[in-house]
Write a structure and sequence with these properties.
Blueprint: H1 13-16, H2 19-25, H3 30-42, H4 54-68, H5 78-88, H6 95-108, H7 110-119, H8 125-137, H9 141-150, H10 156-168, H11 172-185, H12 192-202, H13 206-221, H14 228-240, H15 244-253, H16 259-271, H17 275-285, H18 294-307, H19 310-322, H20 330-342, H21 346-355, H22 362-375, H23 378-391, H24 398-410, H25 414-427, E1 436-439, E2 445-448
Antiparallel strand pairs: 1-2
Helix pairs in contact: 2-3, 3-4, 4-6, 6-7, 6-8, 7-8, 8-9, 8-10, 9-10, 10-11, 10-12, 12-13, 12-14, 14-15, 14-16, 15-16, 16-17, 16-18, 17-18, 18-19, 18-20, 19-20, 20-21, 20-22, 21-22, 22-23, 22-24, 23-24, 24-25
InterPro entries: E_motif (IPR046848), PPR_At4g14850-like_plant (IPR046960), PPR_rpt (IPR002885), TPR-like_helical_dom_sf (IPR011990)
PPR repeats: 124-158, 258-292
Organism: Platanthera zijinensis
Length: 454
């Protein structure tokens, strides 16, 4: 999320509409943009050489912004070259030019950004905000907090930047503390994107939902507009926390409901196993003039998966392509494979994997393999094991090897169990800590305590 905006004076409009700006806008590389900017400076009157011209400074900001949009800009020396040119032409003394360069450095080079920040004599809110965001993006929360505390003045972007920093560093409690501090200050209102991020961090548990409710109360109290993102985040927060009545209340209060709002309700209901309610919402979409998207169908298929509705799942999976022209993705296939496998329809699940238009991943194969273990279908397990071991990453998918070993043990194939364990040792397969189990030669399942060192 970007919370820093480069402010360009209104007088820059004449530059942005000029032929030079058009050429820079269509430049193929940052270096070409810099060359075009230099050619613009060469046409400047000699009398203006020692005094930064507003037209030139706006041109510099515009060019820096265009250069920052190139992904290769961070890999080249374009910004140091630009920096040298701005020093030579005295344009760097303009605060909005130095702020634009600082923003460019913040995306590509922290050392250069720090050096420039120290050299700016007339730092303003924008320069501080840029550096706070720069540190936050790299996880340097202590430095971001120190800069925030040093600020003589703060605006909404300042609060938004530091709150966002703590949220993305995995410290939502301090983010909410800052949110309350900002409310007590009473002079600023947070960026809607920060509210969206805060609501997302609340989703998932009833205790976190209490914090989400306080944000909702803040939104209502300050009469903030609940646009698409904010409205969707509120619904998702309540639905994922199991507060379905509150989610429905927010949904019903939305003046202009779109596919995101409907989808948030369907997915929330599906997660909590309310299949009938999720499908009811889906059926209401078409009369309301709302077309479902891929995420909507993920929620619908997930609802069928939770309820074991095999035929309903098949119908919705077909409807997705036949009626709405949507191509199934890995998540849609994952729901269907899991649905079929859990219902004991292992042959159907295997056939669907074989017919997939995209490459099946480890999760897809493991879902079927787990069902083979549950239904003791060793013939199908042999086919799946041959496929899954070809794509398994030892460092990431250690549980797959354990599952294969368990299957061989259940079938009494102890030589194969030994081979799998030797393979795990040879590949240095990482097993997750926690309470696991193994099956001994007598067919008895024994628990291994989490303190056992593997």
């Amino acid at each position: 999320m970007e919370v820093v905006k480069i402010l360009i004076p209104l007088s820059s409009l004449s530059w942005a509409d000029s032929a030079s700006a058009a050429a820079i806008r269509h430049a193929c590389s940052p270096r070409e943009a810099l060359i075009l900017f230099k050619s613009r400076l060469r046409r400047r009157p000699p009398a203006a050489a020692s005094l930064p011209d507003l037209y030139d400074s706006n041109a510099a900001v515009f060019t820096l912004k265009q250069c920052s949009a190139f992904p290769v800009a961070s890999e080249s020396r374009i910004f140091p070259s630009f920096h040298a040119l701005l020093l030579k032409t005295n344009l760097l003394s303009c605060i909005h030019v130095s702020s634009a360069l600082l923003h460019a450095y913040s995306l590509s080079s922290l050392p250069n950004a720090l050096l420039l920040f120290d050299q700016i004599p007339n730092r303003n809110v924008v320069t501080y905000n840029t550096m706070i965001t720069c540190h936050a993006r790299r996880g340097n929360i202590a430095f971001a907090s120190e800069l925030f505390n040093q600020m003589p003045q703060r605006d909404v972007a300042s609060w938004s930047a530091i709150i966002w920093a703590y949220l993305h560093s995995g410290n939502p409690s301090h983010a909410f503390f800052l949110f309350r501090e900002m409310n007590l200050a009473g002079k600023t209102k947070p960026d809607p994107l920060v509210l969206v991020t805060m609501l997302s961090s609340c989703a998932g548990s009833s205790s976190s939902a209490l914090l989400g409710k306080s944000i909702h109360a803040y939104i209502v109290r300050n009469r903030l507009s609940t646009g698409v993102q904010l409205g969707t985040s509120l619904i998702s927060m309540y639905a994922k926390a199991g507060c379905l009545n509150s989610a429905f209340y927010v949904f019903e209060k939305m003046p202009d409901r779109n596919v995101m709002h409907w989808t948030a309700m369907i997915c929330g209901l599906a997660v909590h196993g309310h299949c009938d309610e999720a499908l009811f919402f889906f059926e209401r979409m078409k009369p309301a003039g709302i077309m479902p998207n891929e995420i909507t169908f993920t929620g619908v298929l997930n609802a069928c998966r939770h309820a074991g509705r095999v035929e309903a799942g098949r119908n919705f999976f077909s409807t997705m392509t036949d009626e709405f022209g949507l191509e199934p993705g890995i998540h849609h296939y994952g729901c269907m494979i899991d649905l079929l496998a859990n219902a004991g329809k292992l042959d159907d699940a295997f056939s669907m994997i074989r017919s997939m238009k995209i490459e099946p991943n480890v999760v897809i194969w493991t879902s079927l393999l787990s069902a083979c273990k549950r239904y003791l279908n060793f013939e199908m397990a042999e086919k799946v094991i041959a496929e899954v071991l070809q794509i398994t990453e030892p460092n990431d998918d250690g549980g797959v090897y354990t599952l294969v070993s368990d299957l061989y043990a259940l079938g009494g194939r102890w030589n194969d169990v030994q081979k799998v364990r030797e393979l795990m040792d040879r590949l240095r397969v990482k097993k997750k800590r926690g309470c696991s189990s193994f099956i001994d030669r007598d067919g008895l399942r024994s628990k291994v305590d989490s303190s056992y060192r593997r």
